[in-house]
Specification:
- The protein is of the alpha/beta class.
- Helices cover 35% and strands 18% of the residues.
- The chain contains seven helices and six strands, in the order ααβαβαβαβαββα.
- The chain has a six-stranded mixed beta sheet.
- α1 packs across α2 (33-46).
- The longest helix is centred in the C-terminal third of the chain and has 23 residues, at 164-186.
- It starts with 9 loop residues before the first helix and ends with a helix.
- This is F-box domain-containing protein.
- It comes from Letharia lupina.
Length: 215
């Protein structure tokens, strides 16, 4: 009899599912019912769901059988994409409000989760978003990634010269804002500098471990 996925022992099939959980596409779950039933729980446990603020909707979450999708998700990556509206005013408040509303479903401590990575991509952590993020105390790790730009666009289209004092001030303000708005709920932050690959951007990551700080 030829060897197929389903002739392997279940523990080996689980290893295959865990490996596939790190792939960018989960269409393999549609191959057959047995594969879907066996692979879906491991996909939610080991895979990472990447959500973008502008497209974040409940219907974008996969919908396996009960329990609900949000109760199964263990790893979450949230990106606030850079937005360019030209000469039009950016509806930042509406985008932030919508994102906060959608993400509130991951809050609370009833469900133990693993990692949440929140990439602000140049956005400021608003009070509303901080309130939602501060509710992520069910995650073992919450990371907040911020991007500072030592060189910024000048009003006339040029590049403003680098000002070290100004860059230091912005860095201190950014760290203080995140620690003030999240520290009470998530505990002490451990900061690290991440290689951005360019001198035009400085990336800082604050790591909170709320599960270790809660009783």
């Amino acid at each position: 009899m030829p060897t197929t996925l389903f002739t392997l022992p279940r523990e080996l099939r689980d290893e295959v599912y865990i490996y596939l959980a790190h792939s960018p596409s989960f269409t393999f779950l549609l191959a057959c019912r047995q594969l879907n039933e066996e692979g879906t729980p491991l996909l939610y446990k080991h895979g990472t769901y990447r959500l973008r603020a502008l497209t974040l909707r409940k219907e974008h979450l996969p919908a396996p059988p009960k329990p609900s999708p949000t109760s199964l998700i263990q790893n979450l990556h949230i990106a606030m994409p850079p937005i360019h509206f030209g000469h039009h005013k950016s509806p930042n408040y509406e985008i932030s409000r919508r994102t906060a509303e959608s993400l509130s479903q991951f809050g609370g401590t009833d469900i133990r989760r693993r990692i949440c990575h929140f990439d602000l991509q140049g956005w400021t952590l608003s009070a509303g978003m901080a309130k939602v993020s501060g509710g992520f105390r069910g995650f073992d790790v919450v990371r907040v990634e911020v991007r500072l730009k030592p060189y910024s666009d000048h009003y006339n289209g040029g590049i403003r010269p680098h000002d070290e004092d100004r860059a230091d001030e912005e860095r201190v303000d950014c760290v203080r804002l995140i620690e003030e708005r999240l520290g009470t709920a998530l505990g002490e932050a451990k900061w690290e500098k991440k290689d951005s690959g360019t001198c035009f951007e400085e990336v800082l990551v604050a790591e909170f471990r709320p599960c270790g700080s809660r009783q």
